[in-house]
Write a structure and sequence with these properties.
This protein is of the alpha/beta class. Helices cover about 45% and strands about 15% of the residues. The chain folds into 2 domains: about 1-140, Rossmann fold; about 145-305, no CATH class. The strands form 2 sheets. Strands 4-3-2-1-5-6-7 form a 7-stranded parallel β-sheet, sandwiched between helices. The model has no long low-confidence stretch (mean pLDDT about 95).
Length: about 375
């Protein structure tokens, strides 16, 4: 039985993982859990799944009978080092997840990664740490999980490009003249996925797809000229690969994160998701509008610039999204803050976690000055 630690167990990805373990009879043993703020649910899940240890990363967690308890991110690192495990599912949202990813890799655990910021912000450094400690990074995002599965059937030299699908978000057909009037509630109303606030806003601006483009480049070794994005509103095709002979191979499935999560944690599990019903199924595809959604185009520029541009993009986006959710800035201002932050030179190559923290702080300071 494979031993798993789930970080961010009360969020969307973590809850889906626990539900799959609960209902799909997976060959997984939960040994550790973390949450950021929801202590009651964290404790309840730990008792249900007979976990050994728990950590609350936002504040002090009082001792709980029969459980080893830890607090804050420093406690999370200690919890990881204290447990015997095979794999860590990192479902922590945002930049904070990077510290957890590095700690998990340094313990020698394989890393099922739902925290795209880890790859975007740390870049090659993250994979150097994984190699140093003999760990494997396994993507959990539905798009990257699909690509990983598709690449299993093809030699790398046979593949011309990766094709990442995007739903287009809630403003796919909205004229840019109306963007200034977009409300927080409208931006949070994603048409096909039920997600947290940050990722929902990122899906509205297509910043989330920009992050996925950068992540795909690092995960699979494809440069900006060999990654494509296509808008697919139904979210049935999760990703595709284009081979050198001109063929295109795709993975299709209903919008359900159970499959990519479980595939990252274990193999050979039957009946994970509802079978696809092709009755009256209609699929459409469109080219992305880089003029109305410039953050997506910025991702390709970032890949060509290299250095620490991706880290600056993520930092500026987190600052701008937080300001938008707080109703301090408009939707167009959100996009412009990220674009203007990236106007500066971000060409430093990352060589340590401390370097990442310093660059992140610098980018956030620049973004805040633009609010």
């Amino acid at each position: 039985m494979k031993r798993v630690i789930i970080l961010g167990c009360t969020g969307s990805i973590g809850s889906t993982a626990l539900e799959a373990i609960r209902t799909k009879h997976l060959d997984l043993q939960v040994v550790g859990l973390s949450a950021h703020t929801n202590a009651p649910q964290l404790i309840a899940s730990a008792h249900e799944f007979s976990a050994q240890a728990i950590c609350l990363t936002s504040t002090t967690l009082e001792e709980v009978s029969s459980l080893n308890t830890y607090s804050y991110f420093s406690g999370l690192e200690r919890m990881l080092h204290s447990l015997d495990a095979d794999i860590v599912l990192n479902a922590i949202a945002g930049f904070d997840g990077l510290r957890a990813s590095l700690a998990a890799l340094e313990c020698g655990f394989d890393l099922a990664l739902a925290n795209k910021e880890s790859v975007v912000c740390a870049g090659p450094y993250l994979f150097e740490i994984a190699k140093k400690y003999g760990s494997t990074i396994i993507p959990v995002d539905s798009e990257h999980s699909a690509i990983a599965e598709l690449l299993k059937g093809h030699e790398r030299q046979q593949v011309q490009s990766l094709i990442i699908t995007a739903s287009g978000g809630p403003f796919r057909t909205l004229d840019a003249d109306h963007f200034a009037a977009i409300t927080v509630e409208q931006a949070l109303a994603h048409p096909t996925w039920n997600m947290g606030k940050k990722i929902s806003i990122d899906s509205a601006t297509l910043a989330n797809k920009a992050l996925e483009v950068i992540e795909a480049s690092h995960l699979f070794g494809f440069d900006a000229d060999h990654i494509e994005v296509v808008v697919h509103p139904q979210s049935i095709v999760h990703s595709m690969i284009r081979t050198r002979d001109g063929a295109v191979y795709a993975q299709l499935g209903n919008p359900d994160m159970t499959l990519p999560i479980v595939n990252a944690l274990c193999t050979g599990s039957p009946s994970l998701v509802k079978p696809m019903d092709f009755t009256n199924l209609s699929l459409t595809f469109e080219q992305p509008d880089f003029k109305r959604f410039p953050l997506l185009g910025l991702a390709f520029e970032i890949l060509r610039r290299k250095g620490s541009s991706a880290l600056a993009f993520n930092a500026a986006d987190e600052v701008a999204v937080h300001a938008f959710l707080a109703r301090k800035i408009s939707y167009p201002a959100l996009v412009q803050i990220v674009m203007r932050t990236l106007d500066q030179k971000w060409d430093e190559e990352i060589d340590s976690f401390e370097h990442i923290l310093a660059l992140d702080a610098k980018a956030r300071m620049v973004a805040r000055s633009l609010i």
